[in-house]
Structure to design on (589 residues):
């Protein structure tokens, strides 16, 4: 994650470089970090509990519960609902992140190329959707897509499309929530790519110009590899969030119509709170957690490799 | 590099940017437009109408909306204060000291950011009820640490690392104590970064929905949760819904404008130094 690991040398530790480091100096950093860890780990005890309770029949309604071993896991994993939810999760994350990355990169490239008044104003204004709560964004889009007061319906009428179902249709529901996610988060990718573009070193491009490479050639062989570290960071943050998206889908349809948009997060929520089956809800979300953890490690590794490669290109 | 594109290409790029800008900004403009429309005008007008403040009056003076705003402010504000008080020293330690497991601890803190919210909420729901902190300010402020703490620690750590250790050595030689150095030298140097990280953490906390929805909701009700109530009513006063959205979006957008320069760095947790 970290781009430079310099400056990490310890004031206290290196002052005593040639002596034995006193005990007080050695524990000091742990003591300083401890409160932050305690506050956050206090919250994280639930993780361990989640694994335990995933093997029980615990319910918020019942005072007692039984240890049921792997029963919840077997029943969750063999039910069609789980695989459907996983498929919804994957499709939602894939489409929203793919569109956001491509669109964000495109807009960043345009903003970077154009350096006029319009583009400078838009650099500021385009971050607005990113800053408002996703649940508010969902409401804004409901005001847009609504068939009676929405403005999109009027626009579509011009093209001869009437009563487009949006979130109410089984075929168009995913499109609708991905559209909202794209609206909110494209600027995140755009900002990161833009920062990457603006920190590109000049010299490789100057020598490329002397060599007479085409714009496209330079983009693929210079710009893109040097942007890769920023792109991976954007991918990391977006993918992790999209895989567990809850508020946009909840705000739009609560997972409906039917179970069209029930991803793993919503399925776990529904099983625990609506069906009051706490134990059986946990396997869904624990599987998601494993997937997210694995992917995060993978992307961080890729990001570091890209960073080394980009550093090589600068010379 | 800087010969610039041809005029034709430039026009095309401007048009593409315009199209995207309409997509990105029009929904917000529409939200503001609807907030000034009366219920009757909602259905028979598009852009030409007589603006009215009626919706604002109803939402701000006849509903509990101001109370929800206050709840949001209390919970997000205190969450950020706790994160700053506890997180800034931790960020300093992670930047300056070399100690065993340092990177592991730093990544542990970061990993909270990526934990699925529902996974945190499910067991917490149980624990909070046992500890009687369900639906309280304290409970929410605590769980909000998962949002604000990783952000603050990672971003502020980066700012500390940007400051040369030499400054601290020099001050030490001059006989200043560690506390004096920390508060008189270091904090003023990272202040712009710290303030913007804190504001961004506030925006994140302000926008949080899943935690307050499932761990609070009656006594303590931030606007993100309250706004869904405006949705639920089928009578559909769209104007009031729009007002609720405008009021909830406004603080976040204003703060974002204040911290523009630091935004990229904050959003990427210090990974991209924009």
């Amino acid at each position: 994650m970290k781009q430079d690991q310099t400056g990490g040398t310890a004031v206290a530790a290196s002052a005593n470089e040639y002596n034995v480091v006193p005990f007080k100096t050695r524990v000091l950093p742990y003591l300083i970090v401890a409160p932050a860890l305690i506050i956050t780990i206090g919250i994280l005890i639930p993780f361990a509990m989640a694994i335990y309770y995933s093997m029980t029949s615990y319910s918020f309604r019942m005072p007692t519960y039984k240890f049921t071993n792997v029963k919840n896991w077997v029943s969750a994993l063999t039910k069609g609902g789980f695989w459907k939810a996983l498929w919804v999760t994957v499709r939602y994350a894939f489409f929203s992140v793919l569109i956001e990355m491509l669109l964000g990169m495109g807009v960043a490239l345009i903003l970077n190329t154009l350096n006029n008044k319009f583009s400078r104003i838009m650099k500021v204004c385009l971050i607005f959707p990113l800053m408002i709560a996703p649940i508010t964004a969902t409401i804004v889009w409901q005001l847009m897509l609504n068939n009676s007061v929405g403005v999109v319906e009027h626009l579509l009428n011009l093209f001869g499309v009437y009563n487009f179902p949006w979130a109410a249709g089984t075929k168009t529901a995913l499109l609708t929530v991905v559209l909202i996610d794209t609206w909110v988060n494209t600027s995140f990718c755009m900002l990161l790519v833009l920062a990457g573009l603006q920190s590109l070193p000049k010299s490789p491009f100057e020598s490329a110009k002397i060599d007479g490479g085409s714009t496209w050639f330079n983009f693929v062989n210079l710009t893109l590899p040097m942007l890769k570290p920023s792109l991976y960071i954007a991918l990391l943050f977006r993918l992790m969030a999209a895989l567990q998206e809850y508020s946009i889908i909840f705000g739009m349809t609560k997972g409906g119509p039917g179970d069209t948009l029930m991803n793993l997060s919503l399925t776990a929520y529904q099983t625990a709170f609506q069906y009051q089956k706490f134990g059986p809800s946990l396997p869904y979300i624990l599987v998601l957690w494993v997937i997210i953890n694995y992917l995060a490690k993978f992307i961080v590794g890729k990001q570091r490799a890209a960073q080394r490669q980009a550093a090589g290109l600068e010379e | 590099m800087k010969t610039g594109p041809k005029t034709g290409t430039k026009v095309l790029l401007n048009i593409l940017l315009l199209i995207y800008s309409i997509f990105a900004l029009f929904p917000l403009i529409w939200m503001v437009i609807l907030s000034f429309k009366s219920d009757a005008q909602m259905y028979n007008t598009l852009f030409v109408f007589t603006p009215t403040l009626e919706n604002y009056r109803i939402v701000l003076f006849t509903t509990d909306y101001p109370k929800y705003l206050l709840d949001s402010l209390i919970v997000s504000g205190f969450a950020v204060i706790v994160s700053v008080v506890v997180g800034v020293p931790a960020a300093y330690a992670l930047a300056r000291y070399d100690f065993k497991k340092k990177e592991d601890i730093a990544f542990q803190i970061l990993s909270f950011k990526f934990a699925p919210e529902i996974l945190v909420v499910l067991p917490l729901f149980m624990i909070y009820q046992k500890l009687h902190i369900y639906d309280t300010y304290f409970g929410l402020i605590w769980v909000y640490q998962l949002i604000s703490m990783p952000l603050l620690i990672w971003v502020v750590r980066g700012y500390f690392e940007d400051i040369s250790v030499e400054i601290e050595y020099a001050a030490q030689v001059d006989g200043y104590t560690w506390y004096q150095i920390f508060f008189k030298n270091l904090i003023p140097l990272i202040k712009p970064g710290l303030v913007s990280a804190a504001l961004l953490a506030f925006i994140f906390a302000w926008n949080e929905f899943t935690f307050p929805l499932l761990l609070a909701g009656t006594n303590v009700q931030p606007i993100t949760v309250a706004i869904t109530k405006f949705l639920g009513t089928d009578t559909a006063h769209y104007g009031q819904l729009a007002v609720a959205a405008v009021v909830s979006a406004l603080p976040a957008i204003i703060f974002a404008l204040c911290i523009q320069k630091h935004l990229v760095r904050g959003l990427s947790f210090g990974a991209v130094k924009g």
Notes: Chain B touches chain A through 109 residues (CB under 8 Å). The radius of gyration of chain B is 23 Å. DSSP finds 14 helices and no strands in chain B. Chain B has a mean pLDDT of 87.
